[in-house]
Write a structure and sequence with these properties.
Layout: E1 2-4, E2 11-13, H1 26-44, E3 47-54, E4 63-69, E5 75-81, E6 90-96, E7 99-103, H2 108-112, E8 123-127, H3 148-151
The structure holds zinc ion (2 copies).
One zinc ion is lined by residues 55, 57-58, 62, 82, 84-85, 89.
């Protein structure tokens, strides 16, 4: 494709490393322009989906375990509630031309509105494929009428566990102090 050199307006191939007339770095300029067009396109195609996925920093648990050593040398354990997912363990999923993103709850509007980019620390790129659903059922006061389908004939076999485990890794104990770092 022929473009006008931004420096001297000479017609030059967009694949040329430099303008043969004035030496302007054409290829570099074209690459920058394409990158900024792609970024703009990505920014304007962000849409919130109905989906949620595990909050990565707290592994879908809503809290983060940590250990420390006291002044007298004893090791202690504690936990912090996860701010990113507001303790729910799950993050809203946003889709754009660049794929799927998990966004910290408080920053979803800013991301969709284009105020923050996909490189923001509040945004995690999930790639081109839809992310898996949350590992743990929604819990806490926000769950409201979420008990829907289970509320009906749930009084049947009293022996069965009331909470039907969703598809996914539910065998992992919720409070396991995993030492694996990702
Ligand atoms: Zn030129
Ligand atoms: Zn979290």
């Amino acid at each position: 494709m022929l473009i006008a050199c931004p420096e001297c307006a000479h017609e030059v191939s967009d694949r040329a490393a430099a303008c043969p007339k004035c030496g302007f770095p054409i290829a570099e300029h074209v690459a920058e322009q394409r990158a900024s067009e792609a970024a703009e396109h990505e920014r304007t195609t962000r849409r919130r989906t109905d989906a949620h996925t595990d909050c990565a920093p707290c592994q879908g648990r809503g809290f983060v375990m940590f250990e420390w050593t006291d002044d007298d040398g004893t090791s202690k354990q504690g936990f912090d509630w996860c701010v990113r997912c507001k303790e729910t363990g799950r993050l809203p999923v946003v889709h754009s031309a660049a794929g799927y993103f998990a966004v910290a709850i408080e920053h979803v509007e800013a991301f969709i509105g284009g105020e923050i980019g996909s490189d923001s620390p509040h945004v995690t790129s999930l790639g081109p494929d839809a992310p898996p659903p949350p590992s743990y059922p929604a819990a806490g006061p926000a769950a409201g009428p979420a008990a829907g389908p289970a509320a009906g004939p749930a009084a049947g076999p009293a022996a069965g566990p009331p909470a039907e485990p969703p598809a996914g890794p539910s065998s992992e104990p919720p409070a396991g102090g995993g030492s694996s770092q990702s």
